[in-house]
Amino acid sequence: MCGIIGLSGHENIISDLLFGLSTLQHRGQTSCGMVTFDKLFHTHKGLGVISHVFDKDSVQKLTGDIGLGHVRYATQGSDDIINAQPFTINYPFGIAMIHNGNIINFNELRKTMYEENHILLETSNDLELILYTFSSELAKKDLKHLKVEDIFEAVTKTQKKVIGAYAAISVIANRGLLAFTDPNGIRPLALGRRQTDTGYEYGFASESSSFDYLGYELMGNLEPGEAVFVDMDNNLFRKICHQKERAFCIFEYIYFAREDSRMHNVLVAEERMKMGRLLAAKVRSAGLQPDIVIDVPSSAYFFAASLAEELGVPYRRGLAKNNHIGRSFILSTQKERETTARLKLNPIKEIVAGKKVVIVDDSIVRGTTSKHIVHLLKKAGATAVYFVSAAPPIKNPCVYGIDMAISDELIGRKSEEEIAKYLEVDALIYQSLDDLQELYKNEGFCYACFSGKYPVSNSLEYLQSVEAERKLNC
User: Which residues are identified as catalytic?
Assistant: First the structure.
């Protein structure tokens, strides 16, 4: 999972680009980068968060009225600087590109790229495959008389060859800003515009909340397999290129997206409240009678608040969070995750002591953090701890851009009785997958991490190869 933004304006774009990218920092802290274009591409990128990578000198060099920004955590490829985005190439025209997602036919495409196009990839980042596939298709067109339809045809060929989940944004030098999604629309990409004295400016971002800060009007999310092109005069063109059945990632609603983002015409906060009400019914049917409901800050707030309201039980903030600690489930070793869990949260004893506590989290991945939270609450004096997961049991790794864990590390593969015993909870409540699917029936979501039903062909084969390689390298 990464965060991406692309803007096309009428004047120097860097301040908006930097500000907009900062609103997506939660989507990746491994590396970040930006590229702008005037007569040349100007690129700056590095390892770490935005505030560490960009300073006054680097920002001043990023001139131009069109550009891209990217924040990353690694799902395909190493954490090395060579894999940091954006990527640029000089032919045809010169193309810069960023993406969010994961390609599952990486090895096949890399082999084809070398054998058919004589291109040797320099990185282990799957963006390079998308970039070279698209550029190779675009180079087949009449470049002296390039039309928008030619660009869309190159996108269509790319979507047919590149299998997986991706949302990509690209600057084609002296031509315009291009964005496109995979045929199933698994990863999010929003389109926005802003009225100025000289006409509309357009932008793309992983989440609509970026547009709120920049003063853009949300035009909606790109559809599965859609491409949108903004030319150098800021004229907008749209086309569904290669579309299959929609399979939007349900985990965006559950965890990754900010609560103030709108995705596919709904507010993420409202969707989490709906899920919280479903959880309340399960707590009630289990015969639990808690004194208070608390959340694991901050992604579980709306689940917990609506659950408490439905039960008629007070909601309290029972845990204080250190916001400068990263997401523990994406750390590479068990020791790192345990250390992070200890530093991240601190119970407020006066609120939980002597209480039967429902603690709500967005999900349980390995269980490391959850077990630690239960220990903290009981040590702080809670008389009972009922752990509630807003997500169903995670039983299968995501192969579409969320690096949760390998299969053997997922605690959701155990029985609920075994999980409850490991967590040392007085009761364990999971969201029901059936209830979740009923809530979003006929809306086209990917539930593969819960159900094991992957919407893209060859996903299981790819998963098996990735897990075999990881175990070999352990």
Answer: 2
